[in-house]
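Case study B.
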Amino acid sequence: MPTPHVVPPLPGAKARRILKLDETFVSPSQTRVYPLVVDHAEGCWVWDVDGNCFLDFTAGVAVNATGHCHPHVVAAIEEQAKKLLHFSAADFYYPQYTQLCKRLADLAPGAEPKKVFLCNSGAEAVEAAMKLARYYTRRPYFLAFYGAFHGRTLGALSLNASKPVHREGFAPLLPHVAHAPYGELDFLTEVLFRRTLPPREVAAIFVEAIQGEGGYIVPPDDFLIGLRELCDAHGMLLVVDEVQSGMGRTGKMWAIEHTGVVPDILCFAKGVASGLPLGGIIAKAHLMTWGAGSHASTFGGNPVSCAAALATIDLLENGLMENAARVGAFLQERLRTLQAQGSLISDVRGRGLMLGVEFSRDGAPATRERDLIIQKAFERGLLLLPCGTDVIRICPPLTLTEAEAEMGLEIFRECLA
Ligand code: PLP
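Model:
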């Protein structure tokens, strides 16, 4: 097993050259937290262009579910790439698309038959869900939650409510979107539905089973169950966004399975194809009333991404989901011990390998300290990412071993100290 190995200064000479080019030619709108310039990666390990080696607790933002460049996934991609790169399922058929849709339909929660639409990203999946919900219900409103992140296209962006920077400068957004506090059912029934929002005009409630970008927040057990009941009572659709929490990350294929709730539409992306662009929705089959031409995508579900996804699902079903549950529980317990030792850690939460560590000082969010820990970890060879205002998210590849987790924890402890 590799070990983290960093030769200061960071960024190294080769990385600095790329960063300079990047500054000149690349859109400055991205949120790079530290100057990591990746050369190659394997499993949970990442090497930068200067030969520094990092342990990856980010998985390319919760994407590389099967670890970087898993041989089974790479072989599936190579084999498919030699046969067919693209043919557009918008206008034609190819087996990989259909086979993957069947596989995903079978994996979705609930006994009712399902149908699947494939696209290229999480935001596109959310757009598809928004369009299908409106199309089916012919209702104008959407309801989403504070802290939500659903993507950056204008429709998905209108549902977001995690950081003003996501919205600033892009108005007008979609009208007819209401927001409510995440985890608080009473606000819907006692305030929104009583005062401003007629529930019979709401097409769908969009909710993350565990809030991602907003701070890795696990809602109270009865919240999602309550949303399901409200949807049933008022004919609204329940759209569960599993873009970040799905594909085995929480120890089950979908995070919503921890609650027993069956969504009407489920959005997925990120981990589904181990890093190749792919997203989509799984909807109850009777909802897919839209006809030919009403929604499609040139690239969505291209054959290579589909082959990677089929290989990814094999791996998730053959051990990686269980590994996420087991190593995630181990990591969570160790982090709680660290919290109990009186550090800046005010909360440790999550499921499986979707873990959030929250920092506070004297009861206030410790954003500066959180950011400093992430920088220090980078300098010591551990890759971490922030979320919310004061949270570090831990979302490593689902191949993470206990030994690797222990190694990351050791660096984390040093940084905290
Ligand atoms: N939905 C959730 C819950 C996400 O976390 C993200 C991205 O982080 C998205 C949607 C958007 O996905 P993408 O960046 O692939 O468009």
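The mean pLDDT is 97. The remaining cases will be described in the next quarterly update.
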